[in-house]
Amino acid sequence: MTSYAILIGLSLAVILSYVFNLASQATRIPSVLLLLLTGIGLQQLSEYVGYALHIPKTLLEIFGIIGLIMIVLEGSLDLRLSRDKVPLIRRSFLAALLMLVSQAAVIGALLHLWLGAGWQTCLLNAVPLVVISSAIAIPSVASLTGEKQEFIVYESTFSDILGIMLFNFVDQEDFAQGGGLLTFGRGVVLIVLVAMFSTALLTFLLTRLRGHVKFFLLFSFLVLIYSLAKKLHLSSLLLVLAFGLAVNNYDLLLNTVRRWLPRLHLPAPAALEAELHQLKSITAESAFLIRTFFFLLFGYSISIPSLLSAPLIGEGLLVVAVLTALRFLYLRYVAQASLMPELFIAPKGLITVLLFYSIPAQHQLGEVSENILFIVILLTSVLMMVGLIISHQRPTADVEF
């Protein structure tokens, strides 16, 4: 394949993704689902013409990590904090936490019954299946407004962060002996301190850097800090969320800092307004580009013949049914919240793949677990599409069953 052929393919991929975004606004079909199906179609076409392209798992991981960072940053840059938002943030945090723990326990028990593997192994394989993918949820709810959109953005982001924390907790060597709680607690305290330091550093760079090239330098620092924290098994996605919230709520941050450190000289909020506008624009463009290539490549990597198994499809359907039932019970009887479209917007995707690829070799369950993962990702994306379509067709958003 020539260089120009590759450039033509990359350009067509970006154009196609833009068309999918326009189609998504009109049909409520998530653009990421269309990208996944396109990748699957390209894989079938390449097999038909006899051209096999191997997608390295490392390449998918790199696109996934950068995409996750940019998408969470994009979502957090649109969130404004205020006293009246505290109940919403608390409600979304509790939803993410309770759903994550309860669903992981139930799915882990199902895997234990099916495969007879150890509890730690089953829980490690269950966590990726229950984490809500903010990479899919956040861009898919752009058409929603008000608290519904903010709830999904907060919940999916908290689900990513808490999911990584739960995964790291279960992955500890002394987890089975119950001795990992102290180590986990130290990690939580450490990541909060690192988040405070990194947010201060990145905000300082944003206000002080001059010149035409600075935003991708800022992104490089963000990816660097994220990766270093990840190497220490910390929930580094919290750094991204904290930075985005701090920048978009700089006036609140400035008032807090001045209250505690009155002699510290910081730039006025007006000095950050133009920079914030550019940062949002570049972040959105970068997230769009990375998301396009990740989901196309991920769809291309899915092997259709291995998924066409009646027992396997049944197991995937059962997992999705259990996840949806638990979410229904929480929203209806615990949170007493509206069900449409919140019940159906719990897609699995980018973070699911990244966590699955992070499972140590001794805890991997082989092709069965991997194929169930693919089926769950596709089915939850279809469910989200149905929820968005139904919600759009109804004049009243708060629908109770």
Automatic annotation (TrEMBL):
InterPro entries: Cation/H_exchanger_TM, Na+/solute_symporter_sf
Primary residence: membrane
Top-rank lineage group of the source organism: Bacteria
Protein name, per record: Sodium:proton antiporter
GO biological process: proton transmembrane transport
Membrane topology per record: Multi-pass membrane protein
Record keywords, A-Z: Antiport, Cell membrane, Ion transport, Membrane, Transmembrane, Transmembrane helix, Transport
Residue span(s) of domain Cation/H+ exchanger transmembrane: 15-383
Gene3D superfamilies: 1.20.1530.20
Species annotation: Hymenobacter polaris
Localization (cell): Cell membrane
TM spans (from-to): 52-73, 93-117, 123-144, 151-170, 182-206, 213-229, 235-254, 288-306, 312-331, 343-360, 372-391
One matching Pfam family: Na_H_Exchanger
GO molecular function, one term: antiporter activity
GO CC terms: plasma membrane
Lineage, opening ranks: Bacteria, Pseudomonadati, Bacteroidota, Cytophagia, Cytophagales
